[in-house]
Design a protein that fits this description.
- By secondary structure, this protein is α+β, with helices and mostly antiparallel strands.
- It contains 52 helices and 22 strands.
- Helix 2 packs parallel to helix 13, helix 34 packs antiparallel against helix 39 and helix 40 crosses helix 41.
- The chain starts with 59 loop residues before the first helix and ends in a 30-residue tail after the last strand.
Length: 1518
């Protein structure tokens, strides 16, 4: 195919460019045989062994642990939600029971008189305290809502509502508050607690009515549903009259008003608008709801305070209605919450009716004054508020990790019944024995106990049975909570219509406020015709296609000089992701299962500096050894992943304006494209490769589509670039976890995972711990407090829409013209890209569950050179961020002033870190060796000053050698420090400042590691990290800043073959050197030698020169010239061997279609020898038609294809605009070198001066620590002495001193570590939530009834079944283990038999989809028990597996039937599975037939005639 894009670019022949094309190559037909048939003598195989390292390390115990945690989450969250809600409801009823005026409560007589009975009446002061308690219960959630709204409005952008929207919201919230106030202050105090708890299930009137009105009338089950709606509303209406009629209390007639007002607060969640069938009034309500939702936080800043004020006025009205002073709510606060007494009255019980157990009291006149426990009301209010909040948080957690049915809906549905039963038990115990709760509840307080009846009479006479109707009607109205369809890690705004809760009615609020998830899934089926269905839709304002919402992932890997092992690890990761995507595609294509996790994939490798001069001719270019290594390792990587010997088809080759391109079709039909960059045609280095793929995918492949703007915007939002390094190792789950984060937050511009360094040796061990601490603490803190500042390019996911924003992609193409640009732009391109995203308001996040493994530097020099790039670029980008802090805080909702302050604190620590380490070494030497501080200062100053001098004057190799020597010395000193700290702890005790700081620091490390059990092994490298602190935090900073002018890459530098241009330039330099030496020889003959020089010289116009005090001149330059001259002959011979002749004026020019500009030729004209050009016909080369490298036998014999005209034009324009190779202007290079050196000098001077001033100040304070210190209040030593003469006991306290250095460590590092540790705890909770949300338990108890059918089981288990069918070992009879090697005992191996069997076996197919088709048909047609036993995903028993197989077959047949009907074929026609589900293949119009297919092709059809591309030159031109 000529087009490799999934989203078609504009091509000459493209007519329907708006038709969706998937990224995978579904029209590509694989060879039926991918390897040559083995001969008898060559049947022996090398079976690839799966290595358990990196991402392939065994994770079974982790998976099992996560499943156990999921089980615990089910149980614990269920118990917490249910228990917290019951406690909140019970404490609320306890509070309202104390509000009734003149209420008589039976008092316990144990502490008074056992032969007497007592009652008490709550005074006004007691009721005032409980009124404040009910006010706190109502106001606490509203205060939280107010603070949340203020934070969001302050840090984020919230639209301002219209007056109409604000009036509607104000009206509804005010009525809701009035309803709650009337319910709590008037209704509940008049009812006993059991009736009050029952009445709480009758507050769903308005939601029930809206359900019935807005119900979809086109639903086939509409009649049934509307009948149930009417019955539910009728059941709710019965609460309006039942108890007012029975009790006769006037205030109870407020129940209808209360039910309507309270339930009105949840109206937004029950407007089910359908643009096709809904009435105008419903659509208007939907418009109001959407407007209120958008501006909710803006309005809640005011409405929350209004609701609190309204509730307070209701309390004052309540006091007035009860003939109390309304002002007493404020004036009696001191009496209510102070020491006071209540009166217990002696009474005599009067029996009125023995049959019905009715009694009354007669006060006899005696009374006793008893003290009250005044904090009781506050404690109960606190318990209620805390319980409600815990219930709300746990309910959110249950929804986020997808355990809503059991731990949310079921738990909340049990709150009412459980509360009522507990209240009946408690009230019965208290009624039987007034002292039953004497040690728990004050004797003068208790619930309002129901009248003492038999339970049968209570249920019948008091109409308590009607509560069952209310409970069932509530269950029907909130039925949507039983059918959750929310996404993983959904935000609170998506889970609940209002992102807060009502404290007094926590269970009803959560059930009624839980959003109704969308009933319409996005149809991602790319095999259906979307145009007709979308054209008839009136819902969308533009021609939207469901395919626009498909997640598209473009893998963008940059390679340079990776080793073979590193390439294999990377290619294995790509093959695993290819197989994973293939399984997802098969799930949709064969079974029509629309998984929300479906994605499309296309992998691209951008190989820098991929060409070199050909071995046989200096005029031609060939791919270098790294490209050849990549081509050779493809089959090996695929074989390791699929545990079989696989040989992929040779890659298709494309000549391109930037060099070339290889295209492989992976076993899962996804493409792997390797872009070969020629540095003579396009800029090399990583940043320009990133510019290259950003403009290719987001510019050419997306913006050039002939579709509507809205569709492009939707596609850009779901297009992601997965930036990788060429040595990365990861599992598909790591990518899907990052996609989850992207789907959760549309403002997320980039997300990165946990990077694990891979290597051996001390430097690798140091980096393992450094990376661990950096991710555990620093990245987690950035994620929680603000935004991650750097998403590393080795493994990060970027949102296409974010990169396409202003000042991101375009600004990223800036060429460095200033010294600081080279530091900020080119040395740390990943951090600069994230800085641009942050400045545009996007968020960058970190996922600790997404693991990736990358090779790290293993030598000291390579590590230092890597950090020499990272340290200055990090500081430059953070300083850029801090310099623009005001604008960033304004534009980025996730970055606050506090976060900027935190980053400033870290920057100060980075700059002054070397000085701090220097002071620490002084203190350590002083404490250990007992030398004076001055001597310790001198001893530490000498190596530091020498190192700075070496770094400023010597070569990098000398600097690194000196740094490694000092590092070894400091490592030994740090081991002495460890001994010194131990001795100090023994001497000063565990409460000394140094002891506490040491224990806390290591304690934080150990606790943090324990919370990361998978990485706890990193603690073993703590010793290496500790002893290298002086080197890494002092010497490394010095080395990085002193080499600021060195902008070379520094790592993976290898010797490469020089280009023709470089060879010719060296030849010219050598010729100039030879001429200069010849000139010197001539001058020596006339005595005009320059071998002598003098300290005093005098000359007249160059006629003569007089030198005094002559001395021999240094001959270093001459020796250098002599060395160059010796190389001249070698270079000349090399050029001759390559066929380069410098004089051939008549030779034809090499034709190139890459014309940047005439004044800037990339290469000189190549010429041929005259004798060859005259007699031998030469093939004329065109870089875009027949370059030499496509015929290179070392890169396999594969088909050659060509880019479309549109893509060719795109690459030429892109190169000409942004990616033209930089001209080697010596003057410009000299200017940049000078500017870099000046910048280096300035930075080093500023750095040295700041640290010197810091060290001087702290050191002088240290010398005067007797006057400048703090007395440490802990761990003081007490000496007691007795003076016999004066008879006096002398007590002396010797306090420990906190000197300046100790104070600095405690304040700075202590505060930073505590901030990071706290943020880490919250981040671990978020990571645990993410992990639990991805785990599915295939247990019966975790499924709803709809999930237990065979079709439901098939939908949930389809992907697991597909994975097992794609696994070769699952359905074959070979006695091999999972790694493909015969695992039987040596004595039982049938080696010869297995070898003979291989003779007849067909080679392994590399088409995973074909493998699945064949194996599925085989299992369905011949379901052997032994094979079914190897497919546990089909079911637990053999019968269940056979049932699942039948469901699988029925589902497949149904899909086949739909395909046939859609294609207009008769239903009874037999169509092969792949042919029916596949799409017709279409060969591209640019296929080059002049190259034969691969040698291993089994195509016996005659080949088309070869089209010659050899052009002969006319020997006799006209």
């Amino acid at each position: 195919m000529a087009m490799s894009s999934g989203l078609r670019g504009r091509r000459d022949s493209d007519e329907d460019s708006d038709v969706y094309t998937p990224l995978f190559d579904d029209s590509e037909e694989f060879d039926p045989q991918t390897a040559q048939e083995a001969k008898g003598w060559d049947l022996f195989l090398e079976i690839p062994i799966r290595k358990e390292s990196g991402s392939m390390a065994t994770s079974e115990w982790i998976d099992l642990s996560v499943k156990v945690l999921k089980v615990l989450a089910y149980i614990v969250v269920f118990a917490v939600v249910l228990g917290a809600a019951v406690i909140a409801k019970g404490t609320l009823l306890f509070i309202t029971s104390q509000l009734k005026k003149d209420r008589q409560i039976t008092h316990c007589n144990k502490a008074l008189a056992l032969d007497q009975q007592f009652i008490t009446v709550l005074p006004l002061e007691e009721r005032i305290s409980w009124l404040w308690a009910i006010f706190i219960v109502f106001a606490a959630p509203e205060v939280g809502t107010f603070l949340r709204s203020v934070r969001i409005c302050f840090f984020k952008t919230t639209p301002k509502p219209t007056r109409m929207l604000f009036f509607v919201a104000f009206f509804v919230e005010t009525l809701h508050t009035l309803g709650v106030a009337l319910f709590l202050l008037l209704i509940l105090p008049e009812l006993d607690v059991v009736k009050g708890a029952m009445l709480m299930n009758a507050l769903c009137f308005v939601p029930g009515v809206l359900n019935a009105i807005t119900r979809d009338r086109t639903d086939p089950r509409y009649p049934t549903k509307i009948v149930l709606d009417v019955l539910a509303v009728s059941a709710q209406v019965t609460s309006f009259v039942v108890w007012p009629l029975l009790d006769g209390t006037t205030v109870l007639w407020l129940i209808p008003v209360v039910a309507v007002f309270i339930s009105l607060g949840w109206w937004e969640n029950y407007v089910n608008a359908d643009f096709k069938t809904s009435t105008a009034s419903v659509l208007y309500l939907n418009t109001l709801r959407e407007g209120i939702k958008k501006s909710r936080y803006y309005m809640q800043r005011v409405l929350s305070l209004v609701k609190i004020v309204v509730f307070m006025f209701c309390i004052m009205i309540y006091l007035h209605v009860n003939d109390d002073d309304p002002a007493a709510f404020f004036t009696s606060v001191g009496d209510a919450f102070g020491e006071r007494f209540y009166t217990a009255y002696e009474v005599q019980v009067l029996i009125i009716d023995t049959m019905q157990d009715i009694s009354n009291y007669d006060v006899t006149g005696g009374s006793i004054e008893l003290p009250v426990y005044w904090p009781a009301a506050l404690w109960v209010a606190f318990i209620q508020v805390a319980s409600a909040y815990v219930c709300f948080g746990s309910a959110k957690f249950a929804c986020k990790i997808l355990i809503q049915n059991f731990s949310f809906t079921f738990a909340l549905s049990l709150v009412g019944p459980l509360t009522i039963n507990l209240l009946i038990v408690f009230c019965g115990l208290r009624n039987a024995n007034p002292c039953a709760f004497r040690n728990t509840i004050p004797d003068y307080l208790f619930f309002e106990i129901p009248p003492v009846y038999f339970l049968r009479e209570y249920v019948g006479r008091e109409m308590a049975w009607v509560w069952l109707l209310w409970l069932m009607s509530q269950a029907w109205i909130t039925q949507h909570a039983w059918l959750p369809r929310c996404e993983r890690l959904a935000a609170t705004d998506k889970l609940f219509a209002k992102p807060w809760y009502s404290g007094p009615l926590i269970d009803q609020c959560l059930l009624l406020n839980r959003t109704k998830d969308s009933d319409v899934d996005v149809d991602h089926d790319e095999f259906k015709d979307e145009d007709e269905s979308m054209a008839s839709s009136n819902q969308d304002a533009y021609d939207a296609h469901p395919s626009d919402n498909i997640t598209r992932i473009y893998i963008c890997a940059t390679m340079w000089h990776e080793t073979k092992d590193e390439m294999i690890e990377f290619l294995k990761s790509i093959c695993r992701l290819d197989a994973h995507q293939c399984g997802k595609r098969i799930e949709r294509k064969y079974f029509n299962i629309m998984s929300p996790d479906y994605y499309e994939l296309e992998a691209h490798i951008f190989m820098d500096d991929a060409f070199e001069v050909s071995d046989h001719s200096s005029e031609e270019s060939q791919v270098n050894r790294f490209v050849k290594c990549l081509v050779d390792t493809m089959d090996e990587a695929a074989s390791e992943v699929h545990a079989a010997n696989i040989r992929l088809r040779a890659p298709k080759k494309y000549p391109t304006p930037y060099g070339g391109r290889f295209v492989w079709i992976l076993p899962g039909k996804n493409k792997l494209v390797c872009h070969l960059k020629d540095k003579a045609k396009i800029r090399h280095r990583k940043r320009w490769s990133q510019v290259m793929y950003m403009y290719y995918f987001l510019g050419h492949r997306l913006m050039d589509l002939q579709i509507s703007v809205e569709r492009k915007e939707k596609m850009a939002e779901h297009t992601y670039l997965l930036a990788l390094d060429g040595d990365i190792d990861f599992q598909p789950s790591a990518v899907t976890l990052l996609i989850d984060l992207m789907k959760k937050d549309k403002n997320l511009g980039a997300a990165c995972g946990r990077i694990h360094p891979v290597g051996s040796g001390f430097m690798a061990w140091y980096q393992m711990f450094e990376y661990a601490v950096g991710h555990w603490l620093q990245k987690a803190t950035e994620h929680m407090v603000g935004c991650v500042l750097c998403s590393p390019g080795c493994f990060s996911l970027f949102r296409g829409k974010a990169l396409m924003d202003d000042n991101v992609m375009k600004k990223y193409t800036l060429t460095s013209h200033e010294a600081r640009h080279y530091v900020q732009y080119d040395q740390g391109e990943d951090r600069w890209l994230c800085t641009l995203l942050l400045q545009r308001g996007y968020r960058v996040e970190y996922s600790a569950a997404s693991d990736a493994y990358t090779h790290c530097p293993e030598s000291f020099g390579e590590f230092y050179n890597q950090r020499r790039r990272w340290v200055p670029s990090t500081m430059a980008n953070i300083l850029d961020l801090l310099g623009d802090a005001k604008q960033i805080v304004k534009s980025n909702d996730n970055i606050s002033t506090l976060y900027i302050s935190y980053q400033m604190l870290l920057m100060v620590g980075t700059v002054l870190g070397p000085g701090t380490i220097f002071l620490m070494m002084i203190g350590a030497m002083n404490a250990i060796t007992a030398i004076s501080n001055v001597n310790a200062l001198i001893l530490n100053l000498i190596p530091v000053v020498l190192f700075i001098a070496v770094c400023m004057t010597c070569k990098s190799e000398t600097q690194l050698m000196f740094a490694s020597a000092i590092t070894c010395v400091y490592a030994m000193i740090m081991m002495m420090v460890v001994v010194g700290i131990a001795l100090q702890i023994v001497e000063d005790g565990w409460l000394a400042p140094s002891s506490i700081f040491t224990v806390v620091t290591f304690g934080i490390f150990f606790i943090t590691a324990a919370l990361h059990p998978q990485e706890i092994i990193c603690l073993l490298y703590l010793v290496v990290y500790y002893i290298t602190i002086p080197s890494m935090y002092m010497l490394l900073i010095i080395y990085s800043l002193c080499n600021l002018n060195n902008v070379s890459w520094g790592t993976r530098e290898v010797a490469q073959k020089k280009t023709l241009k470089e060879i010719e330039q060296e030849k010219k330099d050598a010729e100039e050197a030879q001429k200069k030496m010849d000139t010197q020889s001539v001058k020596k003959l006339f005595g005009n030698s320059e071998d002598d020089s003098g300290s005093m010289e005098l000359s007249v116009a160059g006629l003569f020169k007089c030198m005094c005090c002559t001395n021999p001149k240094d001959h270093k330059e001459d020796l250098h010239l002599l060395k160059i001259s010796h190389e001249l002959e070698k270079i000349g011979k090399k050029l001759d061997s390559l066929g380069a002749v410098t004089e051939a004026p008549e030779a034809p020019r090499r034709r190139s279609t890459l014309r940047l500009r005439e004044t800037h030729g990339l290469l000189d004209e190549y010429v041929e020898e005259d004798d060859l050009s005259a007699d031998t016909p030469r093939e004329e080369r065109d870089d875009l038609v027949n370059p030499y490298w496509v015929e290179d036998p070392d890169v396999k014999k594969g088909e050659v294809d060509f880019l479309s005209t549109a893509e060719n034009h795109f690459w030429k324009d892109l190169i000409d605009t942004y990616l033209r190779p930089l001209d080697e202007n010596k003057e410009e290079q000299a200017r940049i070198a000078k500017d870099l050196k000046d910048l280096r000098d300035k930075m080093v001077f500023a750095f040295v001066m700041l640290n010197a001033l810091f060290v001087v100040v702290i050191f002088l304070m240290q010398l005067n620590q007797d006057q400048l210190h703090f007395q440490w209040p802990f761990g003081q030593k007490v000496e007691i002495a007795y003076d016999d003469e004066s008879n006096i006991v002398q007590i002396e306290r010797d306090y420990l001193m906190l000197e300046p250095i100790g104070s600095l460590f405690l304040v700075f590092f202590g505060s930073v570590m505590m901030i990071q540790f706290t943020a880490m705890l919250f981040h671990r909770m978020g990571t645990l939530t993410h992990l639990l949300s991805t785990v599915k338990l295939d247990w019966y108890c975790t499924k709803s009834p709809n999930d237990t059918s065979q079709q439901a089981i098939l939908e949930t288990q389809a992907f697991a079944i597909i994975k097992e069918l794609l696994n070769n070992q699952k359905i074959t009879d070979d006695p091999v283990a999972d790694d493909g090697i015969d695992a039987t005992h040596v004595t039982r191996r049938n080696t010869i038999k297995n070898l003979e069997r291989r003779r007849t076996l067909k080679p392994n197919e590399v088409n995973l989809e074909a493998n699945f088709e064949k194996r599925l048909s085989s299992v369905i047609q011949n379901p052997k028990s032994e094979i079914l036993a190897r497919l546990p995903s089909l079911g637990g028993t053999e019968a269940a597996r056979r049932l699942t197989l039948r469901a699988l077959q029925a589902r497949r047949d149904s899909v086949l039937q739909e395909r046939r009907l859609s294609q207009g074929q008769p239903c009874n026609q037999t169509i092969p599975l792949r042919q029916d589900l596949g799409r017709p293949s279409a060969s591209g119009p640019y296929v080059n037939r002049s190259y034969e297919p691969a040698f291993d092709s089994d195509n016996d059809s005659p080949l088309p005639p070869r089209r010659s591309t050899v052009r002969f030159r006319d020997p006799n031109p006209m």
